[in-house]
Design a protein that fits this description.
By secondary structure, this protein is α/β, with parallel strands linked by helices. The chain has helices at residues 17-29, 46-61, 73-81, and strands at residues 2-12, 32-44, 66-69, 89-91, 101-102.
Amino acid sequence: MQERRIFVRGDVDIATAPELGAQLDEAIAAHHDVVLDCCGLTFIDSSGVRTIVTAHRKLGELGGRLRIVNMDGIGRRVIDTLGLGDVLDVDGELDDRPTAVSD
């Protein structure tokens, strides 16, 4: 599978989670592993978390992988508070490795 990087910027909430979900679904439908780059994430609520968990599940069912990079601050606290740090592949370190496909 090729890897597709999706950049997250700003808030991921009830108003913006569907847009992120559509980008994730598009990548999944194209049989891409996904790198969710949260370098610009400023806020995430339960709808955003649900969108990420759903994509993680879908990719897992297809033998793919969702990797989350550059998530720190509020995003990381939310993921850890919900106990998803051990479920999702979250790497808080800066990741600047090139990818095969980029948005």
